[in-house]
């Protein structure tokens, strides 16, 4: 049995007896912070926490590691509920093209973008893809990410989509991070199906999905519902096909245009609707009282210079918000969740507490792991991060680009750098 006691914590963030829900509206500005606190871990679980004055002292020193966190904050690790972290190559040349004036959409229409990434991924063997992705996500642990959702969608052939999902399955076994896999065959129509969209729909529904289900390769299903990509009708058909295999939707909607995707996804019981750079009153109405988590991806807005999600409007309507990185080689080549909180505060007017709630508790919900992750609760997984000595929690979003995390514990084990 291994035990860790963290004492003299300056502030313990996101605590609760059994926080399985999410926070919405005004609740999001409450961090359930305990000042001058302790936290006790046994094996991979949180077994006790509270104010230092209520700590009972040490009775059994056997196998106990004591960490003194004087001046430091302790938080649940970030849950990054939306990424495309398995890819074969970066896309700097498109970055330069955009600087020279081409838009992301224009680059995609020329055969760049997602199709560029798909061509590169199809060529790469599974082992190399796996090793590179493992290094890539492990690098994020240092910045405090303890759970990550990863999508397919750079395969776009039966073989390459399966290859990507098998890589994610291997990552689940090899990494101490909690990982969820999402099937995103509907990321773009492959070149070969440019004039035969029905043919690709048929391939996804009748070939990819049955094989994915047979090998148990996906937890969720996604679709990029957007002009020049997938129509609302195509998304609906896909989500219906996914439901036959118990794949809950988590979808890309409203990145550039509003096509009714939010309302439809809510109807299909989506766990989350992601992007939402565009959001109207109908969407907000559809989300009210639903079980679907609105998820903003401010890294994408920053990197593509497109509008930011209207966080204040969503919060005023008493909605919850999750924030995720969208880490991918095209629109967001960075998975640092601390930076995501910075962009959300500066560009979306979220408070530091709202941004930290949106990247822990609420994003755990958005990837379906809120019963075990996302908060400091007894019985939850001991996935926590200890900051450097900092003056306040606001330092995390404030000092943008800096790594304020000193130590990360995943499943009760201290992660070596
Ligand atoms: O979430 N919008 C669709 N998919 C990704 C970007 C994919 C890419 O450019 O490679 C996103 O931004
Ligand atoms: Fe995405």
From TrEMBL:
Zn(2+) binds at residues 82, 84, 252, 326. Keywords: Cytoplasm, Histidine metabolism, Hydrolase, Iron, Metal-binding, Zinc. The keyword Membrane does not apply. N-formimidoyl-L-glutamate binds at residues 154, 328, 330. GO terms for molecular function: imidazolonepropionase activity; iron ion binding; zinc ion binding. It comes from the Bacteria. 4-imidazolone-5-propanoate binds at residues 91, 154, 187, 255, 331. Its cofactor is Zn(2+); Fe(3+). Its EC number is 3.5.2.7. InterPro entries: Amidohydro-rel, HutI, Metal-dep_hydrolase_composite, Metal_Hydrolase. Residues 310-415 form the Amidohydrolase-related domain. Fe(3+) binds at residues 82, 84, 252, 326. One of its GO terms (biological process) is L-histidine catabolic process to glutamate and formate. Its main location: cytoplasm. Belongs to the metallo-dependent hydrolases superfamily. HutI family. This is Imidazolonepropionase. It comes from Brumimicrobium salinarum. The gene is hutI.
């Amino acid at each position: 049995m291994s035990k860790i006691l963290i004492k003299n914590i300056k502030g313990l963030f996101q605590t609760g007896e059994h926080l399985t829900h999410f926070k919405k509206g005004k609740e999001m500005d409450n961090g359930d912070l305990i000042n001058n606190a302790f936290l006790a871990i046994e094996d991979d679980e949180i077994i006790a926490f509270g104010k230092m004055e209520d700590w009972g002292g040490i009775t059994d020193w056997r196998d106990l590691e004591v960490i003194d966190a004087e001046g430091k904050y302790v938080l649940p690790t970030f849950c990054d509920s939306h990424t495309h972290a398995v890819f074969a190559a970066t896309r700097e040349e498109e970055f330069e093209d955009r600087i020279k004036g081409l838009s992301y959409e224009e680059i995609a229409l020329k055969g760049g973008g997602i199709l560029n990434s798909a061509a590169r991924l199809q060529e790469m063997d599974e082992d190399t893809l796996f090793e590179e992705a493992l290094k890539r996500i492990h690098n994020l642990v240092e910045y405090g990410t303890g759970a990550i959702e990863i999508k397919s969608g750079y395969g776009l052939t039966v073989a390459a989509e399966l290859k990507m999902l098998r890589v994610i399955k291997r990552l689940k076994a090899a990494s101490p991070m909690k990982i969820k896999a999402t099937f995103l065959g509907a990321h773009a129509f492959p070149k070969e199906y440019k004039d035969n969209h029905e043919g690709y729909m048929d391939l996804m529904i009748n070939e990819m999905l049955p094989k994915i289900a047979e090998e148990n390769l996906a937890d969720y299903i996604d679709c990029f519902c957007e002009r020049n990509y997938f129509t609302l009708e195509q998304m609906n058909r896909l989500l219906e096909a996914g439901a036959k295999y118990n794949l809950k939707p988590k979808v890309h909607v409203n990145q550039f245009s509003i096509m009714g995707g939010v309302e439809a996804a809510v109807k299909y019981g989506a766990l989350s609707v992601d992007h939402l750079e565009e959001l109207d009153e109908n969407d907000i109405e559809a989300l009210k009282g639903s079980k679907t988590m609105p998820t903003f991806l401010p890294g994408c807005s920053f990197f593509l210079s497109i509008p930011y999600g209207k966080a204040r409007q969503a919060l005023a309507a008493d909605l919850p918000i999750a924030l995720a990185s969208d880490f991918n080689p095209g629109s967001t080549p960075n998975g640092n969740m601390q930076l995501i909180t910075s962009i959300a505060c500066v560009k979306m007017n979220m408070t530091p507490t709202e941004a930290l709630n949106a990247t822990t508790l609420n994003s755990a919900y958005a990837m379906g792991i809120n019963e075990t992750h996302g908060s400091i609760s007894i019985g939850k997984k001991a996935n926590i991060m200890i900051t450097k000595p900092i003056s306040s929690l606001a330092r995390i979003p404030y000092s943008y680009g800096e790594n304020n995390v000193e130590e990360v514990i995943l499943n009760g084990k201290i992660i070596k750098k």
